Every structure is written in structure tokens, then in C-alpha cells.
Amino acid sequence: xxxxxRNLRFFGIFVLVMFFSLSALAQQRSSSSPRLQFQNRGAQYxxxxxxxxxxxxxxxxFVKLPGQYLVPSDTDLISLISYAGxxxxxxxxxxVKLIRTMGTNSGERVIEVNVKKFLETGxxxxxxxxxxxxxxxxxxxxxxxxxxxxxxxxxxxxxTYFAYFAxxxxxxx
Length: 173
Prior knowledge:
Order of helices and strands: HEEEHEEHEH
Number of domains: 2
Radius of gyration: 24 Å
Number of strands: 6
CATH class of the largest domain: Alpha Beta
Oligomer: single chain
Strand content: 15-25%
Shape: elongated
CATH superfamily of the largest domain: Outer membrane lipoprotein wza domain like
Structural class: alpha+beta
Largest sheet: 6 strands, mixed
Number of helices: 4
Distance between the termini: 15 Å
CATH topology of the largest domain: Outer membrane lipoprotein wza fold like
Helix content: 40-55%
CATH architecture of the largest domain: Roll
């Protein structure tokens, strides 16, 4: 009887740990979505080492090295993606978002760029010039999110499988 109680207590602790782990994972995924906040950061242009005019831009999402970059003022979208190591395999390059701040009182403008079409046609009108404080967001493909969902279901299934047999074992069947 004491052994059974100890096993049930162990099983209860195991279930709580798994529940909180899954809750933390879900909270991390929901809090990792980008929040767009724009504020006046002072000067928008910088002078580089060789008296080159530089601007700050951001690139987020499915590129090899996301982050903030100080790039030449004549940088275009494709060049920035290249600076960031290129798109990842799961990147949805047919709908890249460029968020452009229009000034302190003007708000922002979202431009959707089809990088895939640019790569197919070479049409330079599909490759916008970047402006200071532009933010580029490269989203994931639907296939990526389906795989993530299936991975989650598989892990949940493994936990359920283990829990089912642990309960059966504790009941003595």
C-alpha cells in the first residue's frame, strides 16, 4: 500500500512537471511573436569608418542572422537579406513585410514584397531601397507551422502513452 502511494505521488509530480513544461512552452511561443514599437531614436543617419553614410535597419524572422544592422544608405532589401545570411529553408519569401516608419506623427506603412518574383524575373522595381529604421519581417511557410504542430502532437502523444501505461502499472493490471 505504501509503495502504491509513493508511486501515485511520483506519477502526480511527473504529470505536474509535464503540465507546467508544456504551459511554459506555449507561453514562450505566444510571447515570442514580434511586437512592433517605434519611437524616435534621435539621428537616423551615421557616418561609417570611410565617411560612408549609414542607416539602422532591422530584420526579423526566418533569416540566418536576424537583428539590427548598420548598413550603407543605398542598401536594398535583397542586400539586407544577404547581410543577414540569407533566408532559411522555411522562409516564406513571396510575402516579405517591410515596415517603414513615416516620421514621428505620420505613423508607419507596411509594404509587402515578393522576393521570390524578384529572384525569378530580376525586376528591380520589386527590390525596394531601404530607409532609416525600416523593419523587415520574413515569415515562415505554412508547411513549417504544420510540421511544428505535428511535432507538438507527437510529443503530447508520447506523454499520454507514458501516462496511460504508468497508471495501468500503478493500478496493478
